[in-house]
Give the backbone structure.
Amino acid sequence: MDEKSLFIGFDHIGINCNTSTDAADNAVLINTLFGFDVIDGKDSVYAGSAIELMKDGDAGRGTFGHIAVATGDIHEAQKHLEEKGFEFDPDSVKYDSKGRLIVVYLKSEISGFAIHLLQK
């Protein structure tokens, strides 16, 4: 499988905010700018579907946040990147309610952002 068919593309960016108030305020600001819906969640506030504002920056991965890259086959995508020499953090994996892998982070950051694969 080649990269163009393996990786669907950018899914969302997560931005580490200092507090839940900062996350909410920034989501409202983005809503004011662009009209993106504000969706409050347990650990983050979304502004639209592609901007995730983390409520506790210290708890979020990455120095500044994270970038999610969507894939149709997370296992193949992980294998492909490992064959290129990239390592994944085994403590970062998340599973859905059926036990299927849906998230895994690379060990290294790019410009202060953690990178994770997201099963779509």
About this structure: Residues 45 and 101 are 23 Å apart (CA to CA). The longest strand covers residues 7-16. The domain at 3-119 is CATH 3.10.180.10 (2,3-Dihydroxybiphenyl 1,2-Dioxygenase; domain 1).
